[in-house]
């Protein structure tokens, strides 16, 4: 959307009301409120009340048909001789405290999970996997059909499948062989049933796009920690109830613990469960089916690290997380009420059931974001054309024709694309490995739709790879720039003895406060400079429309050139008005971009880039001469299209005993050409604060 000179920043409520109940009754001291305050939320504290619908959409309508591709899924439900479906058991009767609902007859289990995944209902809180993909693709892609089969009883015990990974076979009871292949055995039973019923099976998936195997019990990834180190101080403390049952360990000689994927041990009962993987298989506790579908349908890998190992000896092998809660292919797959420690409930409608949306890189990779909605620009061209300014709409919302869902900056030019100095991933936990990164993306996260359970609103800046590689110490392709890179200081959990275990430097919640925000004193940053890659990123303004849809005005500038156009700025005569009686007034300065529109638009990929190049960005500063007077801005940046005017507010307050007046001076300086600057005074009297 072309900026037309209308003020691009939204000013929050600025007047602090009288403080009730004070002895003197004096009004509160005037403060300039941040226009975009940071309010990140811990996933632990989220509930279903945090869900917010996207205005004008109804992606969870099971009758809504995708416009391009409807996926055909066969749901095959299986249980085991030693593990019935949890939802067939009395409410909260099993060792893990499940199910959370009244029991379902075994014959109804396949239909129950079909409806759980596909039909809005009381159990899934109205959220479905069809809805997720319809939202991400804006109606292009969804689940066209899900047929159910089963329930089938597999020939082996659950632990014979579950102890077949992560070095766990040593925990296999005597007389059993823990080398089961759940996918193979489930498919064998399913295909035998099809054959008996005369249903043709023309290929390995019997004509379906994917076979979804839903198996009785738990996904080990959702319980290894909760029913391991979070429940027991030491592996020796694990009681028999959590060890092998007497039916397979009659002499009670086996340990009650077993190895697990990330740390040395968990309870045997937790380890005995199958680890859900992208084959696709899902336990009754698994809410990550959308994540597994991302692997399967779009060949997008995991972008997540290992935040658990060697807590006592950081940083090695710790590696900072890549995109964490901001993307479904990272730990954003664990978003949802209560976060990642609430993924043990059955049905799995807490942490994990409302994953984050896909980041812009992944939507481009999957081909589900319209090219016209991505401003695709070149690092090299920026130096020749001058900076770009655009308004970017929250990624969960369709910005409409001509709108922008994100900005992509290609790291083109001579030499390797990412020119960041080399670092060592084996000694520096914040090193991303340097090679393979070839573009930046800027996008807006607004907490609605499947982004409702992201930790905050704001602007996400990320460095990305077109092709995946393991330079981060793990497979990675998104690297979110952390606007607040310090340790976030969260307690992960408390051990049974009360000892707090802090979130490690590699924990995904270290990026809960990573978004950039507009304006001053937000608690976050409004700009970021990548000196090595010669780029400067700006967050200039914020806006919410009447439906609550969030958008930001963003800019990107080259440090190596600002284009051939003449730059200019002029401040006009300010108007003065009161904003808090007896304390504060406002000087409203007209600011005009007196420079030229872009004279060169060549080199960028997007065909609509021309209108994005006509702005300049101005850095603002203010001073006050009067004793007892203070002048403040709510934003250090503004922008205007060539020939257009915007308004810059300056807030001026005084304390008792101050001079009767002050002279406030606003200075505006072009970011494209710092020699272009203009200053103008504004005189404010005590009487002006009362008008």
How would you describe what is shown here?
This protein has 691 residues and is mostly beta strands. The chain has three domains: 69-298, no CATH class; 369-558, no CATH class; 570-689, Immunoglobulin-like. It contains eight helices and 26 strands. The strands form seven sheets. It has a five-stranded mixed beta sheet with strand order 7-9-10-11-12. Strands 18, 19, 20, 22 and 24 form a five-stranded antiparallel beta sheet that branches. A four-stranded parallel beta sheet has the order 2-1-3-6, with helices on both faces. Mean pLDDT is 92; it is low at 1-25. Residues 1-23 form the signal peptide.
Q: Helix tally?
A: 8
* Major pleated sheet: 5 strands, mixed
Radius of gyration (CA) equals 29 Å
Strand ordering within the main sheet: 7-9-10-11-12
Determine the structural class based on helices, strands and strand pairing.
mainly beta
Task: Give the overall shape, derived from the CA principal axes.
Answer: elongated
Number of domains: 3
How confident overall, as mean pLDDT?
A: 92
Q: Can you tell me the residue ranges where pLDDT is under 50 for at least 5 consecutive residues?
A: 1-25
User: What fraction, in percent, of the residue positions are helical?
Assistant: under 10%
